[in-house]
User: Fold this.
Amino acid sequence: APSTESQTSTPSSSLSIYASASPALPSNSHISEVLKATLNDSLLPQLQQLIRQEVTLALSEVQLRSSHLNRPRSPLLPPPFTPPQPLSSQLSSGNVDAIQLLRQFYNQPDARFRSSQQEKLVQLALTGDQNFIGILPTGGGKSLVFLLPAYADQKAAEETMLPSRKTVVVIPNKALLIDTMRKATEMGIRTIQWQTSTSRSASSNAILLLVALESVTHIKFK
Assistant:
C-alpha cells in the first residue's frame, strides 16, 4: 500500500511529528537519527544535563547504601550479670525475695503464692522482726508459712557454716503431724518430731521441730 507522510512544524521548536500509514516500525538506529534530527541545538544540552544529574544522584544513593551496609556494627553485649545476694545476707538484712525463694523451694520457675495474704504471712515469718497472728482458710497454704522460713534458715546455714535458727511448730493432732513431717522431709528440710525420748543432739541437728499438743507442757520440752 502506498504510504503518505506528513510533516508539521511549530515556530517555538524544530521538533517534527511523523505519521506513517505503514504498519512497519523503523529500526532503532533510524529512531536515533530521527531524534537527533528533530531536536534543535538548544534542547540537546538540557537533556544531557538532566541525564547527568539523574546519574549523579543514583550513584550517590548507591554509595550511601554501600557505606551503611559496610559500616562496622558494634557487637550486642549482654546485660551485666548481677549475682544474686546470698540468702544468709537477705535474712540478716530482713530483705528476702519471697517469690524467688518460693520458686527455688518448689523448683518451679513460675510458682506463685496462692493469695496475697499467704505471701504477706510468709514475708513476715521470713523477716522475723515482729510477732503476728495469721489466719488462712482450709487449703490456704498455712504450712508454707513455717516451711519456707525453715527452708531458708537451712540454706543460709549451709552458706555460712554457722548454727541455724530453729522453727518449732505445735500441731494439734497426730494425722496432721505425720502429714507435715512427710511434706517437710520431701522438701529436704531437716525435721524431727519431738518426743520425750528425743535426744538433745537430734534436736540440735534439726531445723524444724514438730511438737504434738500434749507434749508442749512436758517438763522435758521446757
The mean pLDDT is 77. Helices lie at 28-38, 43-70, 87-93, 98-106, 116-127, 144-160, 174-186, 200-205. The first strand starts at residue 5 and ends at 10.
